[in-house]
Write a structure and sequence with these properties.
The complex is a heterodimer of chains A (121) and B (408). Chain A is built from 3 helices and 5 strands. Chain A has 121 residues and is of the alpha+beta class. Chain A has a single domain, classed as Alpha-Beta Plaits (2-Layer Sandwich). The longest helix of chain A is centred in the first third of the chain and has 20 residues. The two termini of chain A are 12 Å apart. The N and C termini of chain B lie far apart (73 Å). The longest helix of chain B is centred in the middle third of the chain and has 24 residues. Chain B has 4 domains: 92 residues; 121 residues, no CATH class; 79 residues, no CATH class; 104 residues, Serine Threonine Protein Phosphatase 5, Tetratricopeptide repeat (Alpha Horseshoe). Chain B is mainly alpha-helical and 408 residues long. The radius of gyration of chain B is 25 Å and the shape is elongated. In chain B, helix 11 runs antiparallel to helix 12 and helix 16 packs antiparallel against helix 17. The chains are: A alpha+beta (121), B mainly alpha (408). Chains A and B meet through helix 1 and strand 3 of A and helix 1, helix 10 and helix 12 of B.
Chain lengths: 121, 408
């Protein structure tokens, strides 16, 4: 069984980390990641940019583009894509394409990645 | 048990919102700061023992408010007036994002009060909102701790006397406050960015400005100028490691080792600029960010899109006419169309910019390129006399040496 593990923390705190502190945390996490790679268990790993870099596309007949992260609590996280995009416009166009194909309600939150490691799966 | 470093970071990052909310309750900046101190002390005890609360900011506001109320009670007891102060236990639930954001904007706006001279605005904002210590602020502004203490005390007295706008702002007032605060945050950033000395202390100012920019943008997610401001700060700050040589002297953009630019900061800045541009509502911060983005995107100085930079400066000139902007446009023109066009453009600036180092530096460099060595020499001499740092003077001296070598 594949599991996705999502990371939550207070970004006001993590963004305020010094470069050294950030590197220290990443190094500690890297040890666990390396072990998982050696066991051939690790898929893609991503670190997202802060929520201030997020844009949300609300699905609907005419999808609505909004600044900021997805903030509703009535819907649940159901899945995600990692897509190469030349810029935000292309990312929004891709999300709209997916919105049209899904035909249901909900939203897509577009978050640029700061770090991406493809993993070994 | 919770990591002390985590608690420190959580207290620091919660501070602006907590103090801002407490200012709303107590309508007094000193009382709010004191209540924040009390709440922080309680947090150190409680969080270390029991782990952090789910929402540290709300916890601190709640505890800070109660500690303030206790203080009022004690004061009343001592004067024999034992009044009953209603405590609202559901306060944490009723903290709406809308309150938070108007609180923080109000607090920043109070600190940026137009009555305060800019140096006092910056100092008091860093003290009250960011919680930097007086020695930290003094180091960043290159003044003694005593002088900084006085500056902050004077600013606080003025703030206490001023009419503090506690009513919820309407849309126009909110936009006005936001514009004032954006300008002030950029001043903090530039204070840290523009001068070379005491790099660590000054870099702290840049980081603090970026932190405040992020905080505001989280609360006002669809303000294009706020996106522009944060993009501009991130793009400029991305070069911090490449901007100084080991001796602490400034390295100019063209000579910087671009592999030392911070790619994460650049990527984030470019995304924010993309977001801002979608609003089709250009403003000075977005345009300056777009210019910084063109520098950031160029793999080498020779590959810089100077033509586009010239157009952006022309737009900025229309929005915010100033001889400095024209001077910057002339730099772009000299790169895209040659020194003669640029020289013609800056000649009319000789009056307003007569005391400006960069004017004479640029004019000298243009004259040098046009082969007018004697005129260039005069300009460089004037520039050296106006230099504000050894690095600026050293840069001009290189030009003078080059002139001497080419004529001998």
């Amino acid at each position: 069984m594949l599991y996705a593990i999502f990371c939550y923390d207070n970004e006001a705190v993590t963004c305020a980390w010094s470069k050294e502190k950030d590197a220290e945390v990443m190094a500690k996490l890297g040890v666990v990641q390396d072990k998982l790679i050696a066991e051939k268990r690790l898929g893609p790993v991503a670190r997202l940019m802060p929520t201030t870099a997020a844009t949300t596309v609300r699905k609907g007949k005419e999808p609505i583009v909004m600044d900021g992260p997805f903030a509703e609590t009535k819907e649940q996280l159901l899945g995600f894509y990692v897509v190469e995009c030349a810029d935000l416009d292309q990312a929004i166009a891709t999300a709209k394409e997916l919105a049209a194909a899904s035909g249901s309600a909900g939203a897509f939150e577009l978050r640029p990645l700061q770090i991406f490691r493809p993993g070994v799966l | 048990m919770t990591d002390l470093a985590w608690i420190d970071a959580a207290l620091a990052s919660s501070r602006p919102q907590v103090v801002a909310a407490l200012v709303r309750y107590f309508r007094d900046v000193d009382a709010a700061e004191e209540a924040f101190q009390n709440a922080s002390l309680k947090a150190l005890e409680t969080w270390r023992a029991n782990g952090p609360p789910r929402d540290p900011t709300a916890w601190l506001i709640f505890v800070g408010r109660n500690s303030g109320i206790d203080a009022v009670r004690r004061a009343q007891k001592s004067t024999g007036l034992d009044g009953d102060i209603p405590v609202e236990p559901d306060i944490v639930d009723r903290l709406e994002t809308a309150d938070y954001r108007d609180d923080i904007l109000r607090l920043l706006f109070i600190c940026c009060h137009p009555e305060l001279p800019p140096a006092q605005q910056l100092a008091v904002a860093l003290r009250i909102v960011s919680g930097l210590t007086v020695p930290q602020i003094a180091r960043a502004f290159l003044v003694s701790e005593d002088a900084m203490e006085q500056r902050i005390t004077r600013a606080k007295q003025r703030i206490a006397r001023a009419e503090v706008p506690f009513e919820t702002p309407d849309a126009a007032e909110r936009a006005n406050r936001l514009a004032v605060v954006i300008a002030s945050i950029y001043l903090v950033f530039n204070e840290g960015y523009s001068t070379a000395s005491e790099q660590a202390a000054r870099s702290e100012l840049c980081s603090e400005a970026i932190r405040l920019g992020r905080l505001l943008l989280r609360m006002y997610p669809d303000e294009p100028e706020l996106m522009g401001l944060l993009a501009l700060m991130l793009l400029n700050h991305s070069r911090i490691d490449a901007r100084f040589d080991p001796g602490g002297e400034i390295i100019l953009l063209d000579a910087q080792d671009r592999s030392r630019w911070n790619r994460d900061a650049i990527a984030e800045g470019l995304v924010l600029l993309d977001k801002a541009i979608r609003h089709r509502s250009p403003g000075p911060y977005q345009i300056q960010a777009a210019i910084a983005a063109l520098h950031a995107r160029a793999p080498t100085p020779a590959e810089t899109d100077w033509h586009q930079i010239e157009l952006l400066y022309a737009t900025l000139e229309r929005l915010q006419p100033s001889p400095i902007v024209t001077l910057n446009r002339a730099v772009a023109v000299s790169k895209s169309r040659g020194p003669a066009s640029a020289l013609a453009m800056i000649d009319p600036l000789a009056g307003p910019l007569d005391h400006y180092f960069h004017f004479h530096g640029l004019r000298g460099a243009l004259l040098e390129q046009l082969g007018r060595g004697a005129d260039a020499h005069t300009c460089f001499k004037r520039a050296i006399a106006l230099a504000r740092s050894p690095a600026e003077a050293a840069h001009i001296r290189q030009h003078l040496d080059a002139l001497k070598n080419s004529s001998s």
